[in-house]
Amino acid sequence: MIVRLFFAMLALIMPMAISAAPASVKSDHCRAIGGLETLWSRPSLRWIVVGEQHGTAEMPAAFRDIVCNAAAAKRPIVVAVERSETEQADIDAFMRSDGEAKARTALLKSYMWQNKTMQDGRSSRAYFQLLESLRVMHRNGVIGRVVAFQPDIATHTPASYEAEMARRLQSASPDEKTLVLAFVGNCHAMRIPMCGSKSAAGDLPSAETFTIDVEGSGGSVWNCGPDCGVHKVWGPSPIGSPRLEFLKDPTAHYDAMLFLGGPVTASLPAVVPVEVTP
């Protein structure tokens, strides 16, 4: 009971701590990822789609490192995140802001952050920190716009939903010089779908698209599968430094695996108070 109360109180004060914390991420301080540099010498690539398992601290941080390192490509960069397109105005305002308490409070007011019944990991503290990192990189000229590409569609089929995601990603790359780095759930990032008949990345021009699956070596995640909370996960990532491993099998679901080199840890919701059972 004491542990549950502690985490419930922690969850209540964390949003205030997030809102008050100063920006601390420097865009020129990228964590190295072995093998990643080979992508920047491929001018034909327009979309790099990175698939995650929602609800970890490490996967948004790894995507942040990918974006940071992409400056070496010396191309205009657009970042696309799997957030509802209804949040676009809030994200734009946050990217223009100084990142202080008022700006953070405004960003966190949207439904995805506030919804008490569906906290699928995209409203986590780590995801919020990713957006803050992107804000700093935007301010420093490393990236251009941050685009929310989750369709806001009242009725749809799974296939049409994936197609709409792909269409929004295509719109995010206005010309062949612009590189789009997309961060999305790993089913949407598959070039050869496994979770359904279609995937968003599979709907993009194959010769101009590169897909990456991020994997840890087990650990825990916060997601809704089916109940929202902390869940244990298994992962194939070998222990060591982060590295990109290219897959040569033409039937592989991704072009490469990003092995984190260690376990993942659950990142709790940034806003909604929660209880965690020990």
> Which fold does the CATH topology refer to?
Rossmann fold
Q: Helical percent range?
A: 25-40%
The CATH level-2 architecture is identified as 3-Layer(aba) Sandwich
Bulk shape: globular
Which structural class do the helices and strands define? alpha/beta
pLDDT < 50 stretches = 1-27
Strand content: 15-25%
| CATH class descriptor | Alpha Beta
Number of DSSP helices?
A: 7
Oligomeric state, counting identical vs distinct chains: single chain
What does the radius of gyration come to? 18 Å
Reading the helices and strands in chain order gives HEHEHHHHEHEEEEEE
Q: Strand order across the biggest sheet? A: 3-2-4-1-5-9-8
Distance between the termini: 9 Å
Overall residue-averaged pLDDT value: 88
Number of strands: 9
For the record, the count of structural domains works out to: 1
Largest sheet, in brief, is: 7 strands, mixed
Write the layout of secondary structure elements.
Elements: H1 2-20, E1 47-52, H2 58-69, E2 77-84, H3 88-96, H4 101-107, H5 111-114, H6 125-139, E3 146-150, H7 158-172, E4 179-185, E5 209-215, E6 219-224, E7 228-233, E8 243-246, E9 256-259
Parallel strand pairs: 1-4, 1-5, 2-3, 2-4, 5-9
Antiparallel strand pairs: 6-7, 8-9
